[in-house]
Amino acid sequence: MTDTPDSMIPYDEIVQEALRAVVGRVLGQVEAAGGFLPGNHHFYITFKTGAPGVSIPQRLRERFPDEMTIVIQNKFWDLKVSDQGFTVGLSFNQIPSTLIIPFSAITAFVDPAVDFGLQFQAAGDIEEDVHPDDAQNDSPGDDAPGESRTSDSDDGTNVVTVDFRKK
User: Dihedral of the CA atoms 47, 49, 53, 57 (nearest 10)?
Assistant: First the structure.
């Protein structure tokens, strides 16, 4: 194997930023539609709770000091998307909360309705699982009995993973 020279162009950062823009565009479409998700689409978003710019209630930060997964499906409100991140209202144990999440804090974005997922590197981290655990906000299924929140296929179809570790 030959050694390749270090790039003076930060390709890994550029690609990560571009993939995070996909999340912003998707959330922006939901915002433009008045907060309505088309079809069976719903999103699991995992983010670093201690990342710069993240604003969550203290009780959630204490419960999830490193990372947290939320679901955007039935029970959310006031979704606002900017170039830097998004703000959303969610309920946790029946307590309404507002979360501010920069795109740079996101480590995974999954839409199980179509088996689509993106995995991001956080500074110093390599995420292993692109299908995060159940979301921590109140179950969206409470409003829609009989609807499935999870995908039938966990084979990784349509998952984009970018790994820039030096081999």
Answer: 120
Q: Residue 54 and residue 49: Cα distance in Å, rounded?
A: 6
Question: pTM of the full predicted structure?
Answer: 0.72
Give CA separation, 1 vs 4, 44, 86, 164, 167, in Å: 9, 39, 43, 17, 10
- Residues ≥6 apart with Cβ < 8 Å to 52: 102, 104, 105
Q: Can you tell me the distance from the alpha carbon of 140 to that of 143, in angstroms, rounded to the nearest whole number?
A: 6
* Residue 161 belongs to a domain: no
**Residue holding tokens 């606002």?**
80
Burial of 99 (0-12, 13-18, 19+ CB in 10 A): buried
Q: What's residue 90's pLDDT?
A: 96
- 46 within domain boundaries: yes
Give the pLDDT band (50/70/90) at residue 155.
very low
User: Which range of residues forms the domain containing residue 83?
Assistant: 11-139
Q: What is the pLDDT of residues 9-38, one digit of tens each?
A: 999 889 999 999 999 999 999 999 999 999
CA-based nearest residue to 129, from 62, 44, 30, 52: 44
Whether residue 33 contacts residue 96, with contact meaning beta carbons closer than 8 Å, is answered with no
Other Cβ atoms within 10 Å of 15 Cβ, number: 14
